[in-house]
Amino acid sequence: MPDKLNTQEAAMLREELEILMNERTCLLKVAGAAAVLVANTDGRNMPPEAAEAAEMLSQCVNDLSEETLKDALEIVHAEVAPGDL
Hints:
By secondary structure, the protein is an all-alpha fold. It has one domain. The chain contains 3 helices and no strands. The protein is elongated. The termini are far apart.
């Protein structure tokens, strides 16, 4: 009986891990797209409300770890100049 329970628990953990990895991939795509948008946006040409939202988005992108940002940019196939990170 304990072996069956461990097998079921392992299967559930595998499923949960797969769900989390898929979610991470989706979030990396969002973060990568946001980073590209921020890098290519001039806030001076925006309405104040949009500029405020862009500033918030920019801060969130800047708060990412370097490794996460690299993963995010890679997943959206963005090219980064050396020294930009």
